[in-house]
Amino acid sequence: MDPPFAGKFVFSVEGLTIGAFTEVSGLSVSIDVEELAEGGQNQYTHKLPGRMKWPNLVLKRGITETDNLFQWFATSSGDGFAGAGNKIERRTGRVELRDAAGRTVRKWEFTGAYPVKWSGPKLAASARDLAVEELEVCHSGFTTSG
After folding, report:
1. Domain of residue 88, CATH code
2. Is residue 50 within 8 Å of 34, Cβ to Cβ?
3. What does pTM read for this prediction?
């Protein structure tokens, strides 16, 4: 069996497809470690687990024709934010890694997700670069499954 191709993934929020992205970073978690020195114990310090840290998810893709990304972003800022009583609606998001046939190989489900940053492409008539947009999503953690 061939390993999954890591270049084909889809991001969705509560069933609404935001888009297929060309790059995803931030799929990580770390645990703070608190060191506690015990009096009279000089050979080691106790290491106790602390808080979990989930970095923001950063997704990059070429420009597409769908407006789902901006519709979701609008609910977390400006008039959408004010219309919701200045409260952010945290949602469940999902990144799905797909194989060449389009079948889901692995998925990561994020809780408490909302968009915090969007960057558009650098536009220059003399450039031959692909127009890429970037989305940054804050979340409260994720689970993964096959």
Report:
1. 2.30.110.20
2. yes
3. 0.78
